[in-house]
């Protein structure tokens, strides 16, 4: 079982023929992901990496039944690419692009909120269901099939957590990199909720960072709904000075609940198994599942 993407997803790449789109689409195809084509305005009718190129997302939906897209469009045009995908009826919109202006994302998020679609990202590594579909930029070989879901604001910590879980003898159901920008589509709580509702995910790893309320919101929701599955949590940025943006655009301490210490305290109060170092994630997963 999986969430968001699987072997049956019909995936297109927006920004297909650009350097980033070409490289990562090639890696996705090599992994075995069902890439059915791509979109580059003005290059419709051509073939690229053995797949058809379309001028518009609407055309891709009509001709190859696309239902999932991954966006490698430059920042100035990426918000329009998200809106175009939503208008065309794409169900899962995974946006890798970093540096989309916040004002553009505010408009895009508002535009798609009443559409039947789910946005993941932007500024994220994507989503992978091991052995079925890699819709992103993550190193596929790190992820093995299993029953632990991962939701993370950090790309590299997603890979690190997966590697540790696999080395402990467990695998990953799906890993979702939600991105670290101030305005993102799928929140930590929403991603955790997907895993809680997935019958084959037995535990969840929740990786957050300083800034914002997403982890606190997720923790409180987990407690309110009865801690159905064990959750292992980590918050990056313990040593970050207040008021300084660290790494991601959204990783900035603004209020009393934005600090790593405050978030970890809230998570512990809500029954989450919090670790103080990312090096402890795998061991903690083995501990809670071993029980």
From TrEMBL:
It holds the Pfam family CoA_binding. InterPro entries: Cit_synth/succinyl-CoA_lig_AS, Citrt_syn/SCS-alpha_CS, CoA-bd, CoA_lig_alpha, NAD(P)-bd_dom_sf, SUCC_ACL_C, Succinyl-CoA_synth-like. Substrate binds at residue 159. GO terms for cellular component: succinate-CoA ligase complex (ADP-forming). It catalyses: succinate + ATP + CoA = succinyl-CoA + ADP + phosphate; GTP + succinate + CoA = succinyl-CoA + GDP + phosphate. GO terms for biological process: tricarboxylic acid cycle. Pathway: Carbohydrate metabolism; tricarboxylic acid cycle; succinate from succinyl-CoA (ligase route): step 1/1. It comes from the Bacteria. GO terms for molecular function: nucleotide binding; succinate-CoA ligase (ADP-forming) activity; succinate-CoA ligase (GDP-forming) activity. Keywords: Ligase, Nucleotide-binding, Tricarboxylic acid cycle. Residues 4-100 form the CoA-binding domain. CoA binds at residues 17-20, 43, 96-98. The active site is at residue 248. Its EC number is 6.2.1.5. Succinyl-CoA synthetase functions in the citric acid cycle (TCA), coupling the hydrolysis of succinyl-CoA to the synthesis of either ATP or GTP and thus represents the only step of substrate-level phosphorylation in the TCA. The alpha subunit of the enzyme binds the substrates coenzyme A and phosphate, while succinate binding and nucleotide specificity is provided by the beta subunit. Belongs to the succinate/malate CoA ligase alpha subunit family. Heterotetramer of two alpha and two beta subunits. This is Succinate--CoA ligase [ADP-forming] subunit alpha. It comes from Nonlabens tegetincola.
